[in-house]
Design a protein that fits this description.
CATH class of the largest domain: Alpha Beta
CATH architecture of the largest domain: Alpha-Beta Complex
Strand order of the largest sheet: 2-3-4
Shape: elongated
Number of helices: 9
Number of domains: 3
Strand content: 5-15%
Order of helices and strands: EEEEHHHEHHHHEHEH
Largest sheet: 3 strands, antiparallel
Number of strands: 7
Structural class: alpha+beta
Helix content: 40-55%
CATH topology of the largest domain: Outer Surface Protein A, domain 3
């Protein structure tokens, strides 16, 4: 495991010995007592170190033997940790697509708050890539919805419509003004491609 404190949980000090993870009442969890060495160790939980390396770092920081493991277990039981390396093959493939994952980082952070299992957020995000969605209608709402689905990582978004783009079909995030006069389905499909350029 390469533990990482869930990035969507902001960290703040409640007092000199208590750290709070998450600011909303639904997700806020406190940890204490926390000394300065433990607070520094928390900064190392960024997903780049496995358990043996974390133990070594804890020894260098003069933390007691077993402190790193106890802290990681405690944070894990509280649902504060994630592990983007412990996930499904589809999630591993998505992680290797750096540009796509970077664009989806806000989605990944939000999903981490709704999944307790390590790697669960990345696995769910990767599952979106297997989805196929058909949007019927490429007007103002349909084209924005199709682009939003594509931008959120849905694997295939197909837009069906007839006719030509009219001025009232233009919308931010959907069909641009330059598309007026083009076929609606083709213009909406172009918006879908723009929303996820790495695909």
């Amino acid at each position: 495991m390469h533990p990482m404190v869930k990035p969507a949980l902001r960290r703040g000090w409640r007092d000199l010995g208590t750290v709070q993870f998450g600011m909303t009442p639904a997700h806020a969890i406190t940890l204490g007592p926390v000394d300065l060495a433990t607070a520094s160790f928390l900064e190392l939980l960024d997903g780049t170190r496995d358990a043996p390396l974390l133990r070594e770092e804890a020894r260098r920081m003069d933390l007691p033997d077993g402190h790193a493991d106890r802290l990681v277990r405690r944070l894990g039981r509280a649902g504060l940790l994630d592990d983007t390396r412990d996930c499904s093959p589809a999630a591993t493939a998505l992680r290797e697509r750096g540009e796509a994952l970077e664009r989806l980082r806000p989605d990944l952070a939000s999903l981490s708050l709704t999944t307790a299992e390590p790697g669960g957020a990345l696995t769910r995000l990767a599952a979106r890539r297997a989805l196929r969605v058909r949007v019927l209608g490429a007007g103002r709402v349909g084209s924005v919805l199709a682009a939003l689905l594509s931008g959120a990582g849905v694997g295939e978004v197909d837009v069906r419509d007839v006719g030509r783009v009219q001025p009232w079909d233009v919308a931010p995030g959907g069909l641009p003004a330059e598309a007026v006069g083009e076929r609606r389905d083709e213009a909406a499909r172009a918006a879908v491609r723009r929303a996820a350029p790495e695909r």
